[in-house]
From TrEMBL:
Pfam families linked: BTK, C2, PH, RasGAP
Domain named C2: residues: 1-121, 132-248
Keyword Metal-binding: yes
Name used for this protein in its record: Ras GTPase-activating protein 4B isoform X1
Species, as recorded: Mesocricetus auratus
Protein keywords: GTPase activation, Metal-binding, Repeat, Zinc, Zinc-finger
Ranges of biased composition (kind: Basic and acidic residues): 808-818
Residue span of region Disordered: 798-818
UniProt xrefs under SMART domains: BTK (SM00107), C2 (SM00239), PH (SM00233), RasGAP (SM00323)
Gene: Rasa4b
SUPFAM superfamilies per UniProt: C2 domain (Calcium/lipid-binding domain, CaLB), GTPase activation domain, GAP, PH domain-like
Amino acid sequence: MGSTVRPQVPAPQRRLHVGCPFTLDTASFWSILQWSPLSGSSDPYCIVKVDNEPIIRTATVWKTLCPFWGEEYQVHLPPTFHAVAFYVMDEDALSRDDVIGKVCLTRDTLASHPKGFSGWAPLTEVDPNEEVQGEIHLRLEVAPGTHGKRLRCSVLEARDLAPKDRNGASDPFVRVHYNGRTRETSVVKKSCYPRWNETFEFDLEEEAAEALSVEAWDWDLVSRNDFLGKVVVNVQRLCSAQQEEGWFRLQPDQSRSRRGEGNLGSLQLEVRLRDETVLPSVCYQPLVQLLCQEVKPDNQGPGHLIPVIEETTSAECRQEVATTLLKLFLGQGLAKDFLDLLFRLELGRTSEANTLFRSNSLASKSMESFLKVAGMRYLHGILGPVIDRVFEEKKYVELDPSKVEVKDVGCSGLHRPQTEAEVLEQSAQTLRAHVVALLSAICRSVRACPVVVRATFRQLFRRVQERFPSAQYQNVPFIAVTSFLCLRFFSPAIMSPKLFHLRERHADARTSRTLLLLAKVVQNVSNMDAPISRAKEAWMEPLQPTVRRGVVQLKDFITKLVDVEEKEELDLQRACNSQAPPVKEGPLFIHRTKGKGPLASSSFKKLYFSLTTEALSFAKTSSSKKSAFIKLASIRAAEKVEEKSFGSSHVMQVIYADDVGRAQTVYLQCKCVNELNQWLSALRKVSTNNPGLLGSYHPGIFRGDRWSCCHQKDKTDLGCDKTHSRVTLQEWSDPLDHDLEAQLIYRHLLGVEAALREKHRLLSGERAADVSPTGSGGAPEDSLAQLLLVLQDLQEAHSSSLAGPPPREPHHLLELQT
């Protein structure tokens, strides 16, 4: 392929990966696997902060010394982030939660491990002198004086200072130290966004101190002042520059001795930081076109490049490659065709029907990703009511006689404890009820299943029928569908509802056992009551009549599910596309300020909100008719609100322009930090291309005659803090980022380029010897040769981007897996 004209290249997207319970990506976190304290008992959970901003709260794991969270998050971040910190907390119902310790990973630390950081990281004690945040605005200059040069320091303002007082704010003042002299600003009461505009001057002598220290403090009347952070200025450098002005990040006080480490337990972490420079779309078009040509329906044969990509992809990164390819083809409208190609490839190399789609092949991994992207809303509708019922009932359920503990069950009458036989029978009845309810929901859901999912399962069903047409294999097409829909989608969600966002908290031990047994029954039904399933656990026999009825119901459901013709598929697809699906929906509490008077939390009213790609709407209930509230194009910012503003946590503000262009603000309260960040993320993503997005905002409210955050009296005053429009959570339902997916595929192919070249050399040798026949779609080595030329062009485009003009601001993706 020839070279292409390359437009101006944007900046890198940094992908940070952290493994084992927490993961970062473009910043990508994999995980904190577990916390291992030394002694005692706790109810631990983790708070993840990026530059002291809480982004994630994991669920609490009750009464354990070695919790495992297993939660996954991805957070897009601006390029200016400095550190990610994991705080292990002990939940307390009667008082404030205790901080057990933390692990802090700076950006430099992550960048110093290009292949990833892995191992146990000791928790360190949380030192108040290190828990600093925010920035201070200084103007520094060397000016002539009466008796020589003078050092002038103007303390203008600060933003996002740590709230040290119970009212959710601080009473900040600044101390400036130079050459043995100290000057102080006035105290600004109840503000984390103070403005001082005070100037101090010092004599600048030849042998004077080399550093100017600027310290921020929280003033307290009856106790010691709290340290808020410091900035140390190099005076020699300032003398050379003569003047310097800007925002300086507050730093901890490193001069104080650190307290003991190593006695608080540890977190196991796997962390990897990657930088991705995403080029303009035109640069990726040859790569995307080449891959699309492989899977288009008019392409005869199974294609050449996808098999080579699968062959050269290691097991460790197969899930990531599968997800990226799936998203790339979804963006091109070819997801069904891509999966059909993978079905044909796997069927072509499978001789035993009972091993079909049982391995972690590219086909299996791609289908898992596909169902999460296209079917999560469907899954919630099917499983949600059953999972909620299991959690609410909290019944003791056990079928294995060797595990029954009668003492945990209680009494059947006033005094008589239940016998083991009664426990087993009652457990079987409870599970039967759950299974019947679940199968009933599944059987009623044919029309609720997304059209693209139905079409994909239709292709899978037909391909398996063609490969195994004999009567002895009549169940194989059904099992092929259930192996994905039930075994790899429904069953994992039943066993771990928190990980599929079906519940906010992890299940306790009793509920977990019920969910596990329910998942086992679903698996037996999905396997079409195969003898091998029954033989594994004979104690499941009391549920066999329910399983057999379930098999009949499930086969009838699948028959209807895959019975969708091409015309019906197109009609359904058009109907779906004509309606804007919700990006985010759920109950929130709303309060709109009137501009005067105090605002109380009691004035918040509960409504059901729905955000689409067109508007933010609300209704009294989820089933009520919705009223358009804010047009999407009018949103200017979505930001958090200081806790002190309403005396309540988890309040956000949506700033928008009304019909005549005036700025308006609505305040919405969420129930937890995760829900708050999810709503902020959704609002920011759908409005990311809006004109007139704000660069600053007020984190407080305009109460009476002034802003509660910075105390300015002009309501139209510019905001005192930066907006965070680039800080978003990545969800399966997010709009696809076509260029990013193409870049990630390019990066993977570049990593296996040597293997691709070797494969091309072998195929070319075979062709020269007439060993390899050429199909109608062209020889495989020709496709590989094209791919290698495309990779070379992209390498040149990336190289030229380094010498080009300053790129746009990069974006980071932080992946967290707990």
